[in-house]
Design goal:
alpha+beta, three-stranded antiparallel beta sheet, about 10% helix, flat, pyruvate, dioxygenase, Glyas_Bleomycin-R_OHBP_Dase, oxidoreductase, 4-hydroxyphenylpyruvate dioxygenase activity
């Protein structure tokens, strides 16, 4: 189900396209397409005005990518949800 039709946001660093879809239950996914965006994060994002003094004291997370995301399902509902994703995405 389309929750929000695709739209484009832009700033001086380029453009990004978004859309929001609903999958199972009340779960929604915001889809993001980078249209050659060169900014730090997304249009409108500004770096913090100050540095958190505790940040350098924290250990490195070593997180370089996200492998997968989990959406828990009731008993016997995993296969229909997986099939929905295979069919629709």
């Amino acid at each position: 189900v389309i929750v929000k039709e695709p739209w484009v946001e832009e700033d001086k660093y380029g453009r990004v396209k978004f859309a929001v879809i609903q999958t199972y239950g009340d779960t929604t996914h915001t889809l993001i397409e980078n249209l050659n965006y060169k900014g730090l994060f997304l249009p409108g994002f500004e770096p913090p005005l100050f540095k958190d003094p505790l940040l350098p004291k924290l250990p490195s997370s070593k997180l370089s990518f996200i492998d997968h995301v989990v959406g828990n399902q009731p008993d016997l509902q995993m296969v229909p949800v997986a099939e929905w994703y295979q069919k629709n995405l």
